[in-house]
Amino acid sequence: MDTLTVWLLIVGLGVPIYTARASFIFLFSNFEPPALVARALRFVPVAIFVSLIVPELLFVSGQLWVSVLNPKLVAAVIAAAVAWFTRNTVVTLVVGMAAMHSMQWLVRV
């Protein structure tokens, strides 16, 4: 593939993608959503986070596993408690990882 073809591909694929993404910025830059929609949109990041994390904590090999022997679940509960009380991200990460590795060592999953 020669250099001209590569550049034509880059520009040819980049322009429509940039246009599609920028159109939302240009079209909705002065748009003020209704109060109810704005209030509902505040919960979108939390909902996405929960939808990604909960299945990883509760399912092991496609099977629901809610038990004190589930290392991920126990480590998540411990990390959540540490986060709640300390409000310190680094401490939460360190304690959560230590709990996870300790539980995996104890349970041998």
Tags for this model:
109 residues; mainly alpha; 2 domains; two-stranded antiparallel sheet; 4% strand
Radius of gyration: 23 Å
Mean of all residue-level pLDDT scores: 93
Tell me the fraction of residues in β-strands, as a range. under 5%
Based on CA inertia axes, which overall geometry fits?
Answer: extended
The low-confidence runs, each spanning 5 or more residues with pLDDT under 50, are none
Q: Looking across the biggest beta sheet, what order are the strands in?
A: 1-2
- The CA-CA distance between the termini, in Å, is 49 Å
In this structure, how is the largest beta sheet organized?
2 strands, antiparallel
DSSP summary: helix tally: 5
> What is the helix fraction of residues, given as a range?
over 70%
What is the structural class?
Answer: mainly alpha
What is the count of β-strands? 2
Order of helices and strands: HHHEEHH
Count of discrete structural domains: 2
Short description:
With 109 residues, the chain is mainly alpha-helical. Helix content is 76%, strand content 4%. The chain folds into two domains: 1-31; 45-107, no CATH class.
What would you say this structure looks like, in words?
The chain is mainly alpha-helical and 109 residues long. The protein folds into 2 domains: 1-31; 45-107, no CATH class. Helix content is 76%, strand content 4%. The chain has a two-stranded antiparallel sheet. A hairpin with a 2-residue loop joins strand 1 (59-60) and strand 2 (63-64). The longest helix is centred in the first third of the chain and has 26 residues, at 3-28. 6% of the residues are buried.
